[in-house]
Design a protein that fits this description.
This protein is of the alpha/beta class. It has helices at residues 10-20, 26-44, 81-90, 137-149, 163-172, 200-205; strands at 4-6, 50-57, 60-67, 71-77, 95-96, 99-103, 110-115, 125-129, 132-133, 153-157, 160-161, 178-180, 182-183, 186-187, 193-194. The protein has a single domain (4-49, 69-197), classed as Rossmann fold. Strands 1, 4, 5, 6, 7, 8, 10 and 12 form an eight-stranded mixed beta sheet that branches. Strands 9-11-13 form a three-stranded parallel beta sheet.
Length: 207
């Protein structure tokens, strides 16, 4: 699918393999999530709007560019928090807005418990940060909220997706690009990605 972008960068492939390893402790896991977020953000922001800008170097005038888009990060609590630091290394002036969703383990449907978006949009581009695109329910719900808020340019940035989640998100929001490090085999009977990496929140926070 043209809207699904799976990174083939050697560093992404290497770091994702270490991230998957069950022996990787939560401190190393958090650092790898940060590094992968930075690399994936680099790939996801190649179409940002630019305007011309002239600066003075020690040797004279240079023609350059200035990024014009006002970008908002929307980490889906709690697992999405681990991606924020890496993205902010590349985009230090972004706004960060939190949306809290948890997955009902019986129905596998998202339940919203936190949303502090202001009345009017303050950004024109949103990056939805969530490590695992499993059933796709949380991603679709988050993007529904952002579109109702008034943002029209939205991208999903995660680590691993399941085909079921990709299908659900692309069907619900065909205008939203998906940037991930891998698309895995399937979901299991309890809604976890296989082979995946387990519970991204638990592995980040040692719980």
């Amino acid at each position: 699918m043209s809207q699904v972008h799976i990174s083939q960068h050697p560093l992404v492939l290497h770091k994702l393999t270490v991230l998957r390893d069950a022996t990787t402790d939560h401190r190393a896991f958090r650092e790898l999530v940060r590094e992968l977020a930075l690399l994936l953000c680099y790939e996801a922001t190649q179409d940002l709007q630019l305007s011309p800008k002239t600066v003075m170097t020690p040797m004279g005038e240079a023609e350059g560019h200035k990024a014009e888009d006002k970008i908002g990060l929307v980490p889906v609590l709690r697992a999405g928090l681990g991606l924020v630091e890496g993205v902010m290394e590349l985009l230090p002036s972004v706004q960060v807005w939190h949306i809290g969703l948890y997955r009902d383990e019986k129905t596998l449907r998202p339940v919203q418990y936190y949303n502090r978006l202001p009345t009017e949009p303050t950004v024109n581009v949103c990056l939805v940060l969530d490590p695992m695109l499993a059933t796709g329910g949380s991603a679709v719900a988050t993007i529904d909220i952002l579109k109702k808020w008034g943002v029209t340019k939205i991208k999903y940035l995660g680590l691993i997706a399941a085909p079921e989640g990709v299908e659900r998100l692309t069907t619900a929001h065909p205008d939203v690009p998906i940037h991930v490090a891998a698309v895995d085999e399937r979901l299991n009977e309890i809604g976890f990605i296989v082979p995946g990496l387990g519970d991204a929140g638990d592995r980040q926070f040692g719980t």
